[in-house]
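Annotated sample (chain length 211).
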Amino acid sequence: MVLVANRRSGMTLFSDPSCAQSHRVRVVLAEKDITVDVVYIDPDNKPEDLLDINPYNTVPTLTDRELVLYDARVIMEYLDERFPHPPLMPVDPVSRSRSRLMLFRIERDWYGPLVKLYSNKATVANKARKELQESLLSVAELFKVKPYFLSDEFSLVDCSIAPILWRLPRLGIDLGPTIKPITEYAQRVFNRPSFRSSLSEAEVEARPDSS
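Output written by the structure step:
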């Protein structure tokens, strides 16, 4: 997969085709229309090249010439600063700090349980499913305050939320009748051309109803 742009960046992204952490980076790349070679890896058979550049042997991993980055939030902020248009973080320090705090909460409260949902232990997975469901429901009303999450503009926060919402049906999470604000928000984000182009074949197949 290559996301095409008018400029050449010399970038490569090692990405799991089904991993939400990798997906959130691909959303940023697509939103900024950055040229990047996306190398989809088999998580059970990772290439030796990945271990050579990343001591943790994890994805997403981004290479930009001599630079190697291997944490999703670090990669996302780097891309936003390296390619400042369109901006995906507020300019003023106070708003920027609030966005970073929200990203921290998303990482702990949503991505944390998401990882446990793939556990082979049913008790661990069921507990994580309930935890993620309750966490999303607790902030449902916030999704209708602004067109995007607490913002008039699409941001890194939305880039992080969207991959989780995309995966909910496959994960067996039904938020019930109180989710209208989340459903409307999700559809707004899913309809963005950048989001559609960020999807791997595996992610498209995970939501055949949304094609």
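Annotation: The chain has nine helices and five strands.
Annotation: The longest strand covers residues 11-15.
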